[in-house]
Design goal:
alpha+beta; disordered C terminus; five-stranded mixed β-sheet; 16 strands
């Protein structure tokens, strides 16, 4: 039987044999995001925003728009729209001159903060619009401008965000009033992007072996989605849809290991779901395939860690299992779900928790005409799943957790966050 990736490639090739449309194949990671989007009642995609604060009146909206248009014209993914054609997920690529990016200036309504206005603007995201959007709001109280750079997750990953920030600042610094990408540069990026996607799909096709399917089926045999049913909200009526907590921990001599972070998330899940459960935690993993250029796009697979909320197997066993998982990390998420379901599991691919890890040295600051923006967090946006943990490692460990208030009350979530921090630094560092 053909693998999921083989079947997808066959459908894509039949689709594009006699069609003049600019259609590109999608990676397994992109297929997952497109599926999640299709299952959302509003068609809302996963959106990845970055927020930067600049001194008031230092950002020129027209110059920023021109810089963003340069990026969208240059990078294939930033002028593409996810689409399903004859049942086949693809990216529909617009011509460079059609990459019309705007800088939206949401007005701050009476009683709102600038952060509220940005949250409101992002929540009204039009699923049919461009994958790259910019929002600029004046924060009169702080004397700052808040800039949101938001991307559809189907066209970006962590490495892409770093390149977008770097190149947006460079394009903003050009003297031309309307900078643009050269035709040769655009064509080269298109060829490099298509090559990277095809290399990624080839790696996924090779990874989808019967042995890998059997491994994931056994690994996830006890997984079910354990998210509690929606309950009456205990947060104030005017509270945003998600809650958040954060802590700064001193950095270890060696950075916190990924298995250590998984064990900490297991401790949080135990607080939320109780003992003796196997809770599916997802985390992104991967990068550009070997030999591919560092193109902007989405190449991070979502791996599933079955977190036993009992006392756990211990750090060494967690690490051993995790390394075994990484040996099969190229198997796309939809194939992993299919393998689990083929053994009779009722799991449909839902994740009860998400873990992302970042290195603060890998993302340059956004600098516009010599003025460096301060990266800030704006909480309260909708969360895809009951809870999500993000860890930024650098001079300090910045630990953050957000949760869906329709599923988890603040008190329970804060207890879970306390358990998370204790697991990383037992008894030394209170939550703040």
């Amino acid at each position: 039987m053909l693998s999921i990736t083989s079947q997808y490639l066959a459908r894509y090739r039949r689709l594009t044999t006699d069609r003049p449309d600019a259609l590109l194949p999608v990676t397994g990671a992109q297929r997952r995001f497109m599926l999640v989007r299709s299952l959302d009642p509003t068609g809302r995609p996963d959106v990845v925003p970055m927020f930067f604060a600049f001194p008031s009146a230092t950002v020129d909206p027209e110059r920023l728009r021109a810089a963003a248009r340069t990026l969208a014209a240059r990078h294939t993914a930033l002028r593409s729209r996810p689409a399903v054609v004859r049942g086949t997920p693809v990216l529909r690529v617009a011509a460079p001159e059609e990459a019309d990016i705007t800088v939206t200036r949401p007005a701050v309504a009476p009683g709102e903060s600038a952060a509220d206005a940005l949250r409101r603007a992002l929540s009204s995201w039009d699923p049919q619009g461009p994958p790259l959007r910019l929002f600029l709001v004046r924060d009169e109280q702080r004397g700052e401008d808040l800039l949101a750079i938001a991307l559809d997750h189907a066209v970006c990953d962590g490495r892409s965000l770093a390149r977008v920030v770097d190149e947006l600042g460079a394009a903003y610094g050009e003297e031309a009033a309307e900078p643009g990408a050269a035709a040769g540069e655009t064509a080269a990026e298109l060829a490099a992007y298509e090559d990277a996607v095809l290399r990624q799909l080839a790696a996924e096709e090779r990874a989808e072996t019967p042995a890998a399917a059997a491994y994931w089926a056994e690994r996830l045999r006890m997984v079910h989605t354990h998210a509690p049913a929606p309950r009456p909200a205990r947060a104030p009526e005017d509270a945003p849809p998600s809650g958040a907590a954060q802590a700064l921990l001193p950095a270890h001599e060696d950075r916190v290991s990924f298995p250590g972070l998984l064990d900490a998330c297991r401790a949080a899940a135990r607080e939320l779901y109780g003992p003796d459960r196997t809770v599916p935690l997802g985390y992104p993993w991967g990068g550009r395939p070997a030999g591919a250029d560092p193109v902007v796009g989405c190449f991070l697979n979502t791996l599933v860690f079955p977190a036993d909320t009992g006392h756990g197997p211990g750090a060494e066993a967690t690490a051993d299992a995790w390394w075994d998982d990484l040996d099969r990390a190229d198997v796309p998420f939809d194939a992993v779900v299919a393998a689990a379901r083929a053994t009779g599991s009722g799991w449909t691919g839902g994740l009860d928790g998400l873990l992302t890890v970042d290195d603060d040295s890998r993302r340059p600051p956004l600098t516009l005409a010599g003025t460096e923006g301060r990266e800030v967090h704006i909480d309260g946006r909708p969360v895809r799943g009951p809870f999500a943990v993000s860890v930024t490692q650098g001079a300090e460990i910045h630990l953050r957790m957000v949760w869906d208030r329709a599923l988890l009350d603040d008190e329970s979530a804060e207890r879970a966050f306390a358990a998370l921090t204790r697991a990383l630094r037992p008894s030394e560092h209170p939550v703040r």
